[in-house]
Design goal:
mainly alpha; 2 helices; about 65% helix
Length: about 55
């Protein structure tokens, strides 16, 4: 299995999702607090797919 670098856009989408999840878990974003874990998981999945798939 060969890993590739994710595109810059994919990386930043993953970072934004992870940061939103962390801020939501701390209570800074009350509307997203119930989805905090899933936002962080989604960020990780986006980053992992960016590494596993070419041109993503």
């Amino acid at each position: 299995m060969r890993l590739s670098r994710p595109k810059v856009v994919t990386f930043w989408i993953a970072v934004v999702l992870a940061v939103l999840g962390v801020l939501a878990s701390l209570g800074s974003i009350p509307g997203l607090s119930e989805y905090a874990l899933w936002l962080v998981v989604a960020g990780f999945v986006v980053l992992a797919l960016g590494n596993l798939m070419k041109d993503l």
